[in-house]
Specification:
Number of strands: 8
Mean pLDDT: 90
Order of helices and strands: HEEHHEEHHEHEHHHHEEHHHHH
Number of helices: 15
Low-confidence stretches: 320-330
Structural class: alpha+beta
Largest sheet: 5 strands, mixed
Shape: globular
């Protein structure tokens, strides 16, 4: 699998390609989906210079682009970096006997989203297991990737009760990037999160066990795959301080409408003693995801073109209906 997907990546410009990974049902088994080899493969490419990368990619693969190719590489880079979640997708692309979709994001924008959760669009995908196909030595990116998963752990713990299983933890982490996503209402299988987690628990363990080894305020029964956590105000405050800045700012705005508090620290201390801290954190996550999912989906209509957008949406709908039929038959 890795060799085949690496061969696909080799069809794209390597100069300035800092990070590449594959994800989704074309890479990892998901319950209710057909064989992985029949599913579209999703890729994300992080590039250091969007204009230069698209210029070379348009020279090699101009047919991948919609009518927006008329804007040239500079225009494509502007669309990528200034609209939606700062990602430019080309979809339903035939490559090496597979159908693929690939998103391009600037390395600096990826690091920004990993650290701040400004959109939770690519950072949310990296809460889940992915297949990394290229990662150039970049200490800032490596640190941001680690910070992103640690932040996901903190947010999930804030939403979970005093005792829960590891699988429930991974479901809570995976749910973060779908909370507030309008596509979960109109285009995605409602069991999508469980379908992602259940067949891939071992991969989630590989990703999150090193973090669980160092999380404060929990007691991890490793052999039983069971966790108990301290939900005292002191522990809640500690987790709140681990949240990314965008989420903290949204919490501050909600809890400080009466201008009672002067800074984030005061708001977090007050929230830690409040019975509704779980709901407040969840609403903050919903706000981030809702905004980016809507703006990026509108942008994707342009980047894919109308014909491909209709085909892609129809495929999503068929996948959702097939999953529902399978669930009913079981």
């Amino acid at each position: 699998m890795t060799l085949k997907l690496s061969k696909i990546v080799s069809n794209f410009p390597q100069e300035g390609l800092a990070f590449a990974f594959a994800y989704g049902s074309g890479v990892f088994h998901q319950k209710g989906h057909k064989a992985m080899s029949q599913n579209m493969v999703d890729f994300i490419f992080a590039v250091d210079n969007a204009k230069a990368w698209h210029k070379e990619n348009m020279r090699r693969n101009r047919k991948h682009y919609s009518f927006l190719s008329s804007l040239g590489p500079e225009g494509i880079a502007r669309v990528q970096e200034n609209w939606g979640a700062r990602v430019y997708f080309n979809t339903l692309v035939p490559c090496e006997d597979r159908i693929i979709k690939y998103g391009v994001i600037s390395t600096s924008d990826l690091i920004d989203d990993l650290c701040l959760w400004r959109t939770l669009y690519i950072s949310g995908r990296l809460h889940k297991p992915v297949l990394i196909l290229k990662r150039r030595d970049n200490p800032a990116l490596l640190e941001a990737l680690q910070q992103n998963t640690s932040s996901a752990m903190a947010a999930a713990l804030l939403m979970l009760p005093e005792a829960f299983t590891e699988e429930q933890l991974y479901i809570a982490i995976t749910s973060l990037s779908y909370t507030g996503d309008f596509r979960m209402i109109v285009g995605e299988d409602k069991q999508k999160v469980q379908n992602i987690v259940k067949p891939n628990v071992a991969r989630f363990q590989e990703l999150y066990h090193p973090i669980l080894d160092h999380v404060n305020h929990i007691h991890w029964h490793k052999k039983q795959a069971f966790i108990e956590q301290d939900t005292s105000p002191h522990a809640v405050y500690s987790h709140l301080n681990m949240l990314p800045k965008t989420l903290q700012d949204l919490i501050w705005l909600e809890k400080n409408r009466d201008k009672r508090y002067q800074d984030t620290e005061e708001v977090m201390k007050s929230l830690a003693h409040s019975a509704d801290y779980r709901e407040v954190v969840e609403r903050g996550v919903q706000s981030i995801v809702k905004n980016s999912s809507i703006t990026q989906s509108l942008k994707s209509i342009l980047t894919a073109g109308m014909v491909k957008s209709v085909r892609y949406s129809a495929a999503k709908l068929r996948k959702m209906l097939a999953s529902k039929r399978q669930a009913v038959s079981v």
